Amino acid sequence: MGQVALEGMEFFAFHGFSDEEQKIGNRYGVDISIETDLQAAAVSDDLQDTVNYVTLYQLVQQEMAVPARLLEHVGHRIMERVFQAFPFVQLARVSVSKFNPPLGGICHKSKVTLERKR
């Protein structure tokens, strides 16, 4: 068993509960980690035997481009795409953060983390 992760991805997107947030947009961060058997890739040195980082990044980027009211929904969509793209993945963990959320005070980021096993 092993883990493949992309950490610190940043996007400008139009998520948020209020209509204003969806119009103005904000900076968001995404961290994703995937657990799967990496033995075949370790032996073969073949990209087909593992999670392709480029494909993983692109599917996160595509989901971040689709507006949503809740970070939970964005994270759920990302996990669904991971399981579709990589049928051998056994567990996915996704954190979606909103930088400087409009809370009326100082807060660096709000964050939700979702985890799902196949």
UniProtKB/TrEMBL annotation:
Pathway recorded for this protein: Cofactor biosynthesis; tetrahydrofolate biosynthesis; 2-amino-4-hydroxy-6-hydroxymethyl-7,8-dihydropteridine diphosphate from 7,8-dihydroneopterin triphosphate: step 3/4
Entry EC no(s): 4.1.2.25
Gene3D superfamilies: 3.30.1130.10
One of the Pfam families matching this protein, by short name: FolB
UniProt-listed SMART domains: FolB
Domain Dihydroneopterin aldolase/epimerase stretches: 4-116
GO terms for MF: dihydroneopterin aldolase activity
InterPro entries the UniProt entry points to: Dihydroneopterin_aldolase (IPR006156), FolB_dom (IPR006157), GTP-CH-I_C/QueF (IPR043133)
GO CC annotation, single: cytoplasm
Entry annotated with the keyword Lyase: yes
Catalysis: reaction(s): 7,8-dihydroneopterin = 6-hydroxymethyl-7,8-dihydropterin + glycolaldehyde
Function: Catalyzes the conversion of 7,8-dihydroneopterin to 6-hydroxymethyl-7,8-dihydropterin.
Family annotation (PANTHER family): DIHYDRONEOPTERIN ALDOLASE 1-RELATED
NCBIfam families: folB (TIGR00525), folB_dom (TIGR00526)
Protein name in UniProt: 7,8-dihydroneopterin aldolase
Protein's organism: Nibribacter ruber
Classification of source organism: Bacteria, Pseudomonadati, Bacteroidota, Cytophagia, Cytophagales
